[in-house]
Amino acid sequence: MAERVPIREGTFIESAKGGILLANRCKSCGQTFFPKSSICFNCFSEDMEEMELSRIGKLYSFATAYMPSVHFQPPYTVGMVEMPEGMRVFGPLKIQEGERERLRVGMEMEVIIEKLWEEGETEVIGYKFKPVIS
Fold first, then answer.
1. Residue ranges of the alpha helices (H) in 33-80?
2. Is the pLDDT reported for residue 134 higher than 90?
3. Measured between alpha carbons, how far is 40 from 2 in angstroms, rounded to an integer?
4. What is the pTM of this model?
5. How many CB atoms are located within 10 Å of the residue 112 CB?
6. Above pLDDT 90, what percent of the chain?
7. What are phi and psi of 81, to 5 degrees?
């Protein structure tokens, strides 16, 4: 079995409930940051507390790329998901064949954790968003 490494330490956890994104909040002014920051860019306080973001957000914007990137073959879709905590998170969208046309701004999206790509014997894992099917 390949070794699994996160794309960035401290950005997410895998739980029995599923993928959870880790953010932090300034104890002085309440500003929230994802990914986590060591200092508040709003009031410059260093008094930060870790928090878990909600697992469900709403699709704010999305785009499909038709040019290859270093790790993704086209077409692939990325998006901004607005989280209930008041921030927008950018990430790849996991959609099935034929689902791209059904994406709509405002639809609910769920955080999942899975392989993004392989580097030799190592799986690089990260978060993605997938449509919530009701």
1. none
2. no
3. 37
4. 0.90
5. 17
6. 84
7. -115, 125
Look up residue 6 and give its amino acid. Answer: P
* CA dihedral for 75, 95, 24, 119, sign (positive or negative): negative
Please report the beta strands in 1-134, taking only residues with DSSP state E, as ranges in sequence order.
Answer: 3-6, 12-15, 18-26, 32-33, 48-52, 56-65, 76-82, 88-92, 108-119, 122-131
**93 with 79: CB under 8 angstroms?**
yes
User: Comparing C-alpha atoms, which of 93, 44, 45, 87 is closest to residue 65?
Assistant: 93
Q: What is the C-alpha separation between 26 and 32, in angstroms, rounded?
A: 6
Asked if 114 and 21 count as a contact pair (C-beta separation under 8 A), the reply is no
User: Per residue in 39-92, pLDDT tens?
Assistant: 999 999 999 999 999 999 999 999 999 998 999 889 999 999 999 999 999 999
Length of the chain: 134
